[in-house]
Amino acid sequence: MSDPPDDVVVLGLGANLGDPLAQLGRAVDALSSLMTIGRVSSVHRTEPVGYRDQPDFYNLVVMGTAPGEPEDLLRAVLEVERSLGRVRTFADAPRTIDIDLLAFGRRVMEVPGLTLPHPRMHQRRFVLRPLAEIAPEWRHPVLGQTARELLSSGSARERVELVGPLRPLPGALAPGLPSG
Question: pLDDT at residue 162 above 90?
């Protein structure tokens, strides 16, 4: 697999209410109408960061390309969240879906409601582990380190467990079914 181009868009998705895996699937489907999705990481189960009295999250990273400007994509992503039942109550609250715009090419910017790259992505193992899975050589636009280097630096320490692919591969057997 070749490394991603410098204009790649990186989104982080997470959910911990309702049916998180189904919510992630619906979100990826909705995002495919906004952007050309090139890669989707495996799902990872992670302990909550910040507000801890809530269920574990299920997280993944999506990479691809999107037309327009970052602000356009952010507006569309917020509409996807709303359509999937996201209600904003307090910081780090449980949620049906969360979609973060982590990076938009090599852009470095700060405008109201949007900072690129995401200001805490390099401190979040639940972002770095799936990102390093699908694009280990992706380079942080400010820090200059690759996803693999950021993950191995150890600054992000929350528990992250591999769950597996969001959807089974075509022709794959369901877990626990005999092959013959």
Answer: yes
Answer yes or no: 72 catalytic: no
Which of 26, 29, 75, 86 is catalytic? The answer is: 86
Q: Which of 53, 92, 95, 139 is catalytic?
A: 95
Give the bridge partners for 61, in sequence order. Answer: 12
Q: Does residue 56 have an active-site annotation?
A: no
- For 9-164, CATH number out of 3.30.1330.40, 3.90.180.10, 3.40.50.1360, 3.30.70.560 equals 3.30.70.560
**Pure H helices in 4-69:** 20-31
Only one residue has tokens 């013959």, namely 180
Check pLDDT > 50 for residue 30: yes
Active-site residue, from 100, 124, 125, 129: 100
pLDDT tens readout for residues 42-62:
999 999 888 888 899 999 999
Known catalytic residue at 95 = yes
- Name the CA radius of gyration of the chain, rounded: 16
